[in-house]
Specification:
alpha+beta, nine-stranded mixed beta sheet
Length: 303
């Protein structure tokens, strides 16, 4: 079990991998009990585009949160629930300005409920969900059927993992089984066909994101991104515009700034060193871009 507050993540040294990864498979929980809980404050931060093999359930505890899944965008208010299927590209941001934006999530691998792939539990209760190309995400509000039951289950799971009582594995697995049972009945009414072009573009974008996250500290060109996904430069632009609403270079700049802010807060490296490590070769441009993003200079941010 692991608990992460995105606002207080800690780094080891400037040579360590950044905390903001796109493909997060294998990072959630322990190998023998693959579940993790998160308390995410995105008031002044955001959870960038990523995906993982696990399923993700969450609910807003303060304010409102914008969740994007592929081309779909949903605003969740306090109490609203979201579900994101395995290997679905998604991101979470603050919705609006001023107010707090906080949510709790449970990220869990289907094997906790389903066991081995050839088990009846996997075939009947896990595979129909994780194998559904038409079920990307699901949003539940208090007026929806099953809302109260699911919110109760998620709250119980989150709280149990938070205190980690001795028999938490048995209790959580039981609650998850009930959660999957309800999810199957609800999901049958919420499956929608996905255009083939959208599926292809998301797969291409995933390859580009992996490349950016691996090489953000280096000089990256549009040609480099295109080569990483074996597509044309124009297709790179289309993938980003259609799915994230950003240009690839806007995304790259914001990703570099996030890592810079992380390092300024959690390392003793100089601002100039961090500027270079995060891929900025012009200190004045870095300072200007940082102030636009965070409302203060890098030095003020450190203070």
């Amino acid at each position: 079990m692991s608990i992460v507050d995105y606002s207080v993540l800690k780094n080891e040294e400037h040579g360590a991998e950044p905390p903001f990864k796109s493909d997060e498979s294998g990072l959630h929980g322990e190998a023998d009990f693959p579940i993790a809980i998160y308390n995410a404050d995105v008031t002044n931060n955001f959870v960038s585009w990523h995906w993982h093999e696990e399923l993700e359930f969450g609910y807003v505890t303060e304010g409102s949160v914008l969740i994007e899944s592929g081309k779909n965008k949903h605003i969740l208010n306090t109490g609203d629930i979201y579900f994101v299927n395995a290997n679905t590209l998604h991101a979470l941001f603050r919705s609006g300005s001023g107010a707090k934006s906080v949510f709790r999530s449970v990220v869990v691998h289907g094997s906790i409920v389903g066991g081995k792939d050839n088990s009846v539990y996997h075939r009947k209760y896990v595979a129909p969900i994780t194998g559904s190309s038409g079920l990307r995400e699901l949003i539940l509000t208090p007026k929806d059927s099953g809302y109260s039951k699911i919110l109760g289950l998620l709250t119980n799971i989150w709280n149990t993992e938070n205190i980690k009582m001795p028999d938490h594995e048995l209790y959580v697995r039981s609650e998850l089984s009930e959660l999957f049972r309800i999810l199957i009945s609800i999901s049958e009414k919420n499956v929608s066909a996905r255009p083939a072009a959208s599926i292809v573009q998301e797969a291409r974008l995933r390859e580009i994101l992996i490349f950016i996250h691996d090489h953000y500290c280096e000089k990256i060109t549009l040609e480099d991104m295109a080569a990483a996904a074996f597509v044309s430069k124009s297709e790179v632009l289309r993938c980003f515009k259609n799915i994230t609403g950003q240009s690839p270079f806007e995304y790259l700049k914001n990703y570099r700034l996030r890592n810079a802010a992380y390092m300024i807060k959690n390392t003793s490296d100089s601002i100039n060193t961090i500027c270079g490590i995060c891929g900025f070769d012009d200190h004045s441009y870095f300072s200007k871009a940082f102030k636009e993003a965070y409302g203060c200079s890098p030095r003020e941010f450190r203070k």
